Amino acid sequence: MAEESYILKPGQLIKAQINEEDVKQLLKLRYGFEVSQITELDAYDDRNYRILCKTVNNPHILSLAEDGYVLKIINSLDSQKIGFFEAQNELLVYLNKKNFVCPIPVKQINGSYYSVESIAPEGQRHLLRLLKYIPGDVLQNSPKCPELLKQVGLFTAKFDDALKDFSHQAYEIQKSLWSLASIPKLRDFVHVLKESTEIKIIVEILHAFENRVIPLLNKLEVGIIHGDLNENNIIVSKDGKSVEAIIDFGDSHKSCLVFELAICLCYMITQYESIECAKHVIEGYRMIRQLTHQEVEILKLCVCARFAQSLVMGTYSYLKEPQNHYLIRTHSIKWRLLKELWCMKDEEAFKLWNIKL
């Protein structure tokens, strides 16, 4: 199948349409679970559920996880990439061996880590997988703390460094609309915006990215990255000052390492509602990995590109699913911060962030 067929196209409906009773039946059929509680979690294109169970009849599960599980019903587009989910499972096992706390995949009754289900009413094919739930507070709920931001930066660099020795063929071909390298494809979705000033900013960012970043893709250091280090995917320690665990590897892919930092900065700036706070993340990051001259030159633009990606694709998804306010809950903050950051000269941003060219 051509790689382009794996990229979301305007108008494509990919989220599973399923009710909780049918989810319970799938859990019983594939995992042998008798469910006591099921709670749907916030998500973009997938269906995610936290599951607590009464009993289990599965030869691969010797005892029920006290904190429960997360069931993921993958969107029909990503469900075509079976190899990618096999790679994800290997990645999670690898990271656990490296002492990173992240979700562990759980086997179905037949010994497989996944199945592909035909789900009514459209009969689309959706991949089904289960992970152990990791308890704890996500960064979104933690008090604002410069030391925590420094630890987030440190963790980001450590995480990417740990993956230098991991490889899987599926990551060599993995493509996603959420990869920063896919920014030019955002043009197909800009029509969802209504404000002319906002459209103008997004088009300017796309143009700058195509001219300044795309030509460098083969010159920047690459590796496997998490791809979505946001405030809901980072679990913090009880004292709120360090990173305890990391979750949701659905956007992991092989890409430029500076993109990982830029993505993280976008979300930390949003969470703290402060462009200047990025300096703490960068300080922690540089304790492990120094930024090259080329990476520094494009860092502010890459942060703006992630803002653009989040705002455009969030608006697009919300128009398809208007009851899901999670998709746009931070948009007013992001627009304000993006407008401020985009108008700022690179030198001003670098001074705020304590970095030099």
TrEMBL record:
The keyword Transferase applies. Residues 68-286 form the Aminoglycoside phosphotransferase domain. It is an enzyme of class 2 (transferase). Keywords: Cytoplasm, Kinase, Transferase. GO terms for cellular component: cytoplasm. Its main location: cytoplasm. InterPro entries: Aminoglycoside_PTrfase, Kinase-like_dom_sf, Pseudomonas-type_ThrB. Its EC number is 2.7.1.81. It catalyses: (5R)-5-hydroxy-L-lysine + GTP = (5R)-5-phosphooxy-L-lysine + GDP + H(+). One of its GO terms (molecular function) is hydroxylysine kinase activity. It is found in: Cytoplasm. Belongs to the aminoglycoside phosphotransferase family. Catalyzes the GTP-dependent phosphorylation of 5-hydroxy-L-lysine. This is Hydroxylysine kinase. The lineage of its organism: Eukaryota, Metazoa, Ecdysozoa, Arthropoda, Hexapoda.
